[in-house]
Amino acid sequence: METDTPTNLRKKLFDVLSQVANSDKGVEITLKQPSGPNKGVVMLSKARHEKLEKLDLMVRMGTLETVLNRMAHEKPDDFSESTAY
């Protein structure tokens, strides 16, 4: 992930927005703090954000854990087209 400052981001905003929108990479914008850890924000494409929202929902509902558990213990006929519906 690239890192940038607000000043540099302002200079090349359109280019950065285009780059983020057309790739799966994010950009971190750092914010200078007087003390403590460096805080900032991450800019993601809308498509990437939607994927992460779906993943978060699957985690919160327990669906992801169930699917991963079934995949880890699958039998040959567990994931066939005939038993999928």
From TrEMBL:
Domain of life, source organism: Bacteria
Stated name of the protein: Prevent-host-death protein
Lineage, highest ranks first: Bacteria, Bacillati, Bacillota, Bacilli, Lactobacillales
